[in-house]
Amino acid sequence: MDTLTKTKAVFTAIVGVLASWLGELAVPMLVLVICNLIDYVTGLAAASKRGQKISSYREIQGIAKKVCMWLLVAVWLICNELISILENIGDIGVPLPGFLGRLVSMLKSKVDSQVPDDSNNQK
């Protein structure tokens, strides 16, 4: 088997595993990754038009910024799920330690105060 065939097989296997793992989210995640790559490439192209010097340090900063954005979204999703789990456990009737109940209430009120209420705008 030549190198190109091996590379295709590995790439196909990785894409297949990711697609099966992500399920319905595979397409939105692919679109997001493609948009990140397009932003990166256009940023490099625009740097010369802006008179900016392309450096590996700035490139690493840009990549780190994108990774941090992904991590923030992941942390937010994890926190949201943990709050939901704790609420469900409380609704089932399992007593939560006092600090967890206060933490869930505090986080819910912070989130509710930060998210605009869309119910007035719906028809």
* Oligomer classification: single chain
General form: flat
Number of helices: 4
Q: State the distance separating the first and last CA atoms.
A: 61 Å
Q: Main sheet?
A: none
How many domains, in number, for the residues?
Answer: 2
Low-confidence stretches: none
Structure summary, number of beta strands: 0
**Helical amount among residues, as a percent range?**
over 70%
Succession of helices and strands: HHHH
Helix and strand content put the structural class at: mainly alpha
- The radius of gyration is 22 Å
The average pLDDT is 84
Q: Which range does the strand content fall in?
A: under 5%
Structural notes for this entry:
This protein is mainly alpha-helical. The N and C termini lie far apart (61 Å). Helices cover 80% and strands 0% of the residues. The protein contains four helices and no strands. The protein is flat. The chain folds into two domains: 1-54; 56-115. The protein has helices spanning 3-22, 26-50, 56-92, 98-114.
Please name the defining characteristics of this protein.
mainly alpha, 4 helices, 0% strand, flat
Write the layout of secondary structure elements.
Layout: H1 3-22, H2 26-50, H3 56-92, H4 98-114
Helix pairs in contact: 3-4
